[in-house]
């Protein structure tokens, strides 16, 4: 792999992401080799207890540094942990953490959720035997018994009838709240009792301004999808991720609940002695670029044709979309650009981007000629959805296929594609065939993906991984499913590689950011001097996200004259100048 340059995050290596099913398969393979499940739980809990201590100490140290001389509640000599456990193995981890922390001098209180009285009857022999997996007592029950054997304090959580959060537990005012309610087994909307438990946990931790640590994955977050039901999940400062990194921690809701993720790898990523192929790879750093050859000219860096920016009779104009795409393509270093947009926008376009050439969107012959000359076409941004726009779309895609050009389809282009698919139009099959030999990139957000797959938006959102795979299977080509933790699917030699983009921020949730992305993809694709990986879809998505991050992270200390931009107020028009900066930052110096 190429040397990679990471601008903001400490982690520069791609991280393999797995589904719950894969994690269970790894565990089962481990147990099938004669390893015990209680032994594994002990290892996990022991390591987590150590992490919890050091995270707490770090927090105390930070407090002391910021409030020098003040003895705050984070005094290391008063270590109190409130550990909320559920009935599965994740809860088992929690009981064992309680056991270990208590042994290490912590005051510990366990809040048991979903338990019956008989679960707390102390049983006899707790010794681990060689055939522990064959024992009727589960690892989680064994963990509970061990915690009870050292008199760990516990209370049973009972939900209130009136939805008031006035629950039966009197939770300890702790410095650390540990969530061991659900792990990778969480797979459906929580019922009333669990909803109340999760809300009570969050409220107690917030009230105590405590450190919140999730065991394996925050409870309420689905490990395989990143879904949270009705925003009810534990909000963690840190997640101690056991065995292997879960896909759901990094896309959709996962980003809002997981906090920092610390890996605790315990067993090999293997099933039947074969390494498991992850469902996706988390990427946070762009591949670094080589400086350009001195002896080169504009033709060496390609010609982007942007087709969009329409004004439909009696409707709003969307010229800005084409301008944003074109400016962003130029900012990545494309050699030349032509914009086919409605004539009313030519003046505005040339005012903001005098480097561009223009052509009327409805000049069919002129555009067809240009498609022959262009290195890549990007179509759809502000194209419009009326019949006339559809005819432009079909004619341009047909022309691009006929002359074998790379194609990027975004926004209204995706709308037309969906409607052509619903009518079994021959263009769908032609585009798919074209994508087998030429780069075709399609960039929907969830709403557009829903239309393309004839599904409801929440069906897409509930399983984004399945949605992007389905899009690729039906239409061919490489895909971005945009949003927090954008997914990228690239097809290489008949195999789909899926990436999760670990950069970008909620400031980018504003109009025009998608047009910028389409421009970045086109700009990179046009530059044939760059190696395949450097022109790839995942590289473009990373550059786009890193640009959003650099804009909201810049501080006045970087540059006295710079204007600070935060997440609220970041605009798509801020992006092109910052893209140029990112392109320079990821280029190796001579
Ligand atoms: N098997 C082992 O030895 C190990 C397991 N580990 C832990 O085990 C966890 C997985 O354990 P489990 O498979 O028991 O899963 P969980 O502990 O996540 O809980 C699963 C239980 O919760 C129920 N459930 C799921 N969603 C629910 C909802 N919305 N409302 C009510 N009940 C719901 C399930 O039906 C099942 O009974 C991992 O996340 C990890 O923390 C680790 O200790 C590593 C070793
Ligand atoms: N919360 C977020 N975190 C990271 N990236 C985001 C977030 N919200 C939006 N983005 C990115 O910004 C872009 C928005 O695209 P899109 O919704 O198509 O906007 P538009 O159609 O207005 O141009 C996508 O690349 C998306 O991934």
UniProtKB/TrEMBL annotation:
Cofactors named for this entry: K(+); Mg(2+)
Coiled-coil portions: none
Cross-referenced InterPro entries: Carbohydrate_kinase_pred_CS (IPR017953), CARKD (IPR000631), Ribokinase-like (IPR029056), YjeF_N_dom (IPR004443), YjeF_N_dom_sf (IPR036652)
Protein's GO biological process: metabolite repair; nicotinamide nucleotide metabolic process
All copies of domain YjeF C-terminal, residue ranges: 281-586
Residues covered by the YjeF N-terminal domain: 23-272
EC number: 4.2.1.136
Catalytic activity: (6S)-NADPHX + ADP = AMP + phosphate + NADPH + H(+); (6S)-NADHX + ADP = AMP + phosphate + NADH + H(+)
Keyword NADP: yes
Enzyme class, broadest EC rank: lyase
Pfam families referenced in this protein's UniProt entry, alphabetically: Carb_kinase, YjeF_N
UniProt-annotated binding residues for AMP: 482-486, 514
Annotated binding of (6S)-NADPHX, by residue: 321, 382, 445, 515
Entry keyword set: ATP-binding, Lyase, NAD, NADP, Nucleotide-binding
Listed GO MF terms: ADP-dependent NAD(P)H-hydrate dehydratase activity; ATP binding; NAD(P)HX epimerase activity
Primary role: Catalyzes the dehydration of the S-form of NAD(P)HX at the expense of ADP, which is converted to AMP. Together with NAD(P)HX epimerase, which catalyzes the epimerization of the S- and R-forms, the enzyme allows the repair of both epimers of NAD(P)HX, a damaged form of NAD(P)H that is a result of enzymatic or heat-dependent hydration. Bifunctional enzyme that catalyzes the epimerization of the S- and R-forms of NAD(P)HX and the dehydration of the S-form of NAD(P)HX at the expense of ADP, which is converted to AMP. This allows the repair of both epimers of NAD(P)HX, a damaged form of NAD(P)H that is a result of enzymatic or heat-dependent hydration.
Family as reported in the entry's similarity comment: Belongs to the NnrD/CARKD family.
Summary of subunit composition and partner proteins: Homotetramer.
Stated name of the protein: ADP-dependent (S)-NAD(P)H-hydrate dehydratase
């Amino acid at each position: 792999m190429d040397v990679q340059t990471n601008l903001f995050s400490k982690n520069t290596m791609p991280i393999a992401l797995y589904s719950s099913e894969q994690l269970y398969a790894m565990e089962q393979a481990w147990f099938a080799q004669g390893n015990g499940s209680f032994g594994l739980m002990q290892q996990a809990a022991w390591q987590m207890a150590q992490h919890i201590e050091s995270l707490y100490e770090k927090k105390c140290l930070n407090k002391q540094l910021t409030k020098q001389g003040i003895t705050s509640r984070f005094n290391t000599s008063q270590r109190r942990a409130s550990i909320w456990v559920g009935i599965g193995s994740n809860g088992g981890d929690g009981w064992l953490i309680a056991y270990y922390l208590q042994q290490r001098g912590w005051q510990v209180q366990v809040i048991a959720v979903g338990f019956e009285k008989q679960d707390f009857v102390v049983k006899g022999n707790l010794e681990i035997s060689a055939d522990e997996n064959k024992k009727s007592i589960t690892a989680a029950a064994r963990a509970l018994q061990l915690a009870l054997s050292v008199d760990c304090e516990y209370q049973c959580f009972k939900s209130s009838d009136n939805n008031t959060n006035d629950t039966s537990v009197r939770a300890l005012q702790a410095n650390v709240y540990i969530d061991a309610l659900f792990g990778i087994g969480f797979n459906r909307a929580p019922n009333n009792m669990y909803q109340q438990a999760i809300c009570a946990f969050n409220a107690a931790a917030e009230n105590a301004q405590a450190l919140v640590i999730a065991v394996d994955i925050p409870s309420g977050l689905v490990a395989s999808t990143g879904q949270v039901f009705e925003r009810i999940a534990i909000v963690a400062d840190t997640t101690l991720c056991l065995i292997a990194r879960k896909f759901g921690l990094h896309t959709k809701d996962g980003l809002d609940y997981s906090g920092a993720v610390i890996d605790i790898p315990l067993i090999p990523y293997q099933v039947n002695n074969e390494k498991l192929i992850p469902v996706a790879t988390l990427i946070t750093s762009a591949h670094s670029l080589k400086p350009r050859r001195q002896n080169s000219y504009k033709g060496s860096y390609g010609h982007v044709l942007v087709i969009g920016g329409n004004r439909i009779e009696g409707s709003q104009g969307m010229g800005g979309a084409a301008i944003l795409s074109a400016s962003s393509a130029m900012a990545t270093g494309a050699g030349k650009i032509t914009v086919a947009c409605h004539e009313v926008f030519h003046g505005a376009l040339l005012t903001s981007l005098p480097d561009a050439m223009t052509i009327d969107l409805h000049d069919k012959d002129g555009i067809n000629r240009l498609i022959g000359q262009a290195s890549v076409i990007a179509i759809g941004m502000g194209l419009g959805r009326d019949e006339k726009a559809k005819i432009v779309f079909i004619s341009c895609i047909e022309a691009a296929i006929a002359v074998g050009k790379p194609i990027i389809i975004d926004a209204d282009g995706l709308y037309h594609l969906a409607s052509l698919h619903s009518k079994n139009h021959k263009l769908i099959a032609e585009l798919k065939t074209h994508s087998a030999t030429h780069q075709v990139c399609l960039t929907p957000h969830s709403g557009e993906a829903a239309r393309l797959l004839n599904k409801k938006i929440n069906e897409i959102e509930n399983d984004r991984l399945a949605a992007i795979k389905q899009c690729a299977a039906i239409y061919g080509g490489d895909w971005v499913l945009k949003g927090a933790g954008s997914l990228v699917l690239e097809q290489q030699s008949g195999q789909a590689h899926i990436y999760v983009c670990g950069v970008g921020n909620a400031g980018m949730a504003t109009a025009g950011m998608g047009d910028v992305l389409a421009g970045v993809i086109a700009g990179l694709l046009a530059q044939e001097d760059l190696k395949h990986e450097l022109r790839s879809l995942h590289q473009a998505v990373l550059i786009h996200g890193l640009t959003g991050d650099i804009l909201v992270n810049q501080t006045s200390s970087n540059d006295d004259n710079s204007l600070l931009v935060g997440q609220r107020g970041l605009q798509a028009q801020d992006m092109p100048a910052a893209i140029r900066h990112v392109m320079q930052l990821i280029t190796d110096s001579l």
